[in-house]
Amino acid sequence: MRRLLALPIIVLALTSCQPPTHPNAINDFDGKTYDSLLLAHTAMASMREKIRTQYKQFIPTFNTVAHTYSLAYDGYALYRTAPDQNAAKTSLLVSNLATSVAALEHDITNRLPYDPKKATVVVEKAKARRGRMANRPRYEMNLVDILTALQVGSQIAQTVPVVGPYAVIASMVIDATKSAVNSSKWSSGKPIDLALIAPIASI
Fold first, then answer.
1. 187 near 25, Cβ under 8 Å?
2. Residues contacting 143, CB < 8 A, separation 6+
3. Domain boundaries, given as residue ranges, for the chain
4. Per-residue DSSP letters for 78-94?
5. What is the rounded CA–CA span in Å between residue 41 and residue 39?
6. How far is CA 16 from CA 8, 10, 59, 68, 182, in A?
């Protein structure tokens, strides 16, 4: 049976009130925005080749994510050169990225033969958790929204039979989330490195 670390534990770890986890972070906004981009970047990188070669029906939605990611990256890179002037715009761009990541996850999982009752439970729990965190700063909610989109997609994919024509697509979704979460854990305590989150090419 496929298993992932429970979503509430991961969200708490990534958004808890603590000193910046990256030694060269300008502030908490800087560090968590980097974490948001790293999550999205790793998930995209994990899925890109299979979408390009096997699941071309998802190319348009993937390319939308790639485009919004590029805009968010450019905004973040600019923010790091002039933090006092670009925080609000950067936060909006990352929010748009979170929306597009959720759309990609929905596009993929919506075509899977998942268990609708279990999926409803997953989605409702995610909504409730987000509601309890809604008073957090926008930049923290961007991180929560990207992680939640990945985790919800993964948890829905886990209801798909492990043997059958859709098993590989489900595994692609699950593996992307695992990779994203692992990259976030790996980067904790390490310097921000823009080279690690450079935009991923459209297909």
1. no
2. 14, 15, 32, 33, 35, 36, 39
3. 26-193
4. HHHH-HHHHHHHHHHHH
5. 6
6. 11, 10, 35, 26, 18
For the chain, the residue count is: 203
Tell me the Cα Rg of the chain.
16
Q: Of 102, 96, 83, which Cα lies nearest the Cα of 138?
A: 96
Q: How many CB atoms are closer than 10 A to CB 166?
A: 15
Cα 21 to chain centroid distance, Å, stands at: 18
**Got the DSSP string for 106-154?**
HHHHTTS---HHHHHHHHHHHHHHHHHTTTS-HHHHHHHHHHHHHHHHH
Quick: pLDDT tens for 135-190: 889 999 999 999 999 999 999 999 998 888 899 999 999 999 999 999 988 998 99
For the entire predicted model, the pTM comes to: 0.90
